[in-house]
Design goal:
single chain; about 375 residues; alpha+beta; FAD/NAD(P)-binding domain; D-Amino Acid Oxidase, Chain A, domain 2; 4-stranded mixed sheet; 23 strands
Amino acid sequence: MVATSTRQMTADLLVIGGGIHGCSAALHAALRGLRVIVFEKDTVARHASGVNAGGVRKLGRHIAEIPLSLHSMSIWRHIADLVDDDCGFQPAPQIKVAETEAELETLRRRVAELNGLGYTHERILDRQTMREHLPGVAEHCVGAIASLDDGFAQPYQTTFAFQRKAQKTGVRVLENTPVERVFKSGKDWKVSTGGQEFTGRFVLNCAGAWGGEIARQIGDHAPVRAYAPMMIVTERLRPFCTAVVGATGRPLSFKQMPNGTVVIGGGRPGVPEPASNRTHMQMAELRHSAQTAMDIFPVMRAAQIVRSWAGIEGLMPDGIPIIGPAAHAQGAFHAFGFSAHGFQLGPGVGDVMAELIATGRTQAPITPFSIERFPQNPTRAHKELS
């Protein structure tokens, strides 16, 4: 057995979780001169970062997420400059269809609210303009809301690109290395795994669905739960859709890939087993996704399903992530619980977290994502650690 040197077991920043947020934060921290070690209990992109729909969207964001989304989009547009890989990123409109006049009115109110806040990236499409973008859409659809300069990318390709560039920049990525314990020792943080103990000035929790347990060990409380959004891929079809499409009144994420296959999601849940890394499909729920796709695009009625899957994601009660410093421990930080819409945010959130960790401050408006928005019980959390 080769001994691990003390130098190899120390760093400025210990990152727990090798998804897109962990790898992005590690890369950006390394670019700021920090020594970084990433711990991934399985393999990079094994969970949410590798099995999501790949949407790169500003459309439909929670108001608090919009500044982060805009910042992240500025990175996506030049992603190859950052990670030496185009990540399969393709600009494409993101369009959410209204099937009734009542739904369209809801979308109009949304655009008016955003305009009032100074955001102009979302716009209403009337029936004719919608059909110019979506010639195959069903006749009953009455209009849509759109962000026309969004896009999509390849999740696996993207996360691996961040990993490779981080490693080239000096980051150590330890896969198949589950973190057993996180604790403070003097001014430093310790991570125990496989009988070894690693030391860092800072620790960053990017553990996704498993982030609640890491938060507990740090001394915080986060009511994250495991969630398993299901996806469908069909056979190749002739090109008919160049946008990423959602529905206003029911879950849908729909896009045709360059090879002609159609990827359908939208959040219909399977059954997650985070302890065993397994998920179980719920065919009745999956049938709803297929039906919605057929209702919105009649051409899909003849399409054959090739495969389906469900990943494991961390879902927060209010649907937005935890981003920022720990509530009760100096030098600890969180970025998890992205609730099935964190892929687009990965490049920007990684940059923000690196800035916050390296300098102690950030101009990004991350207060709405504080872990302190949930009731905290530090006494109990620390007692459980002892």
